[in-house]
Write a structure and sequence with these properties.
The chain has helices spanning about 5-15, 20-50, 55-75, 80-85, 90-105, 110-120, 120-150. By secondary structure, the protein is an all-alpha fold.
Length: about 150
């Protein structure tokens, strides 16, 4: 292999690389992601039909999606769905729940505090910190703008 030309190496790599399934993967991601979004909308509509306001029903639907994704991750079902559906399972709300629960489940043998609780925020922690920091900066900028404009 050391004495290969670039052309020979390219042919070698092409022979070893798995066939691209981009059309299939894209279609599955679109379908599964769309199905998750439709489920969320259906839940919001169901909660609204039960008498909740639009805002509260949307929040309840989001909470339900997080709980379902977390439970599916805990029972090791979410990863199997993700292997099949690909990026469609990365819809932010369900993907975030999976990102929080998966590390916690991996380290649960280390105990409740050092394993489960500590590892839950390995991936989600930086996202939460960045979100809080960004909102504080944004709020400060709006407050200063309001003071400057005299409002």
């Amino acid at each position: 292999m050391i004495n290969m030309t670039k052309k020979e190496y390219a042919q070698y790599v092409k022979g070893k690389a798995p066939a691209s399934r981009i059309v299939r993967d894209t279609a599955l991601a679109w379908l599964i992601g769309g199905a998750i979004c439709m489920l969320g909308q259906g839940l919001a509509d169901l909660y609204k039909a039960q008498g909740l306001t639009k805002e509260v029903s949307s929040t309840a639907a989001s909470m339900t999606l997080v709980a379902v994704a977390a439970a599916l991750t805990a029972f090791r079902v979410y990863d199997n769905i993700a292997k099949w559906a690909g990026a469609g399972t990365l819809i932010p709300i369900t993907g975030f729940a999976n990102a929080m629960v998966a590390p916690a489940m991996e380290f649960k043998s280390e105990g409740f505090i050092n394993g489960l609780a500590a590892k839950m925020f390995v991936i989600a922690g930086p996202v939460i910190v960045y979100g809080l920091l960004a909102s504080a900066v944004y709020g400060t900028v709006l407050w200063v703008m309001k003071l400057v404009s005299g409002g």
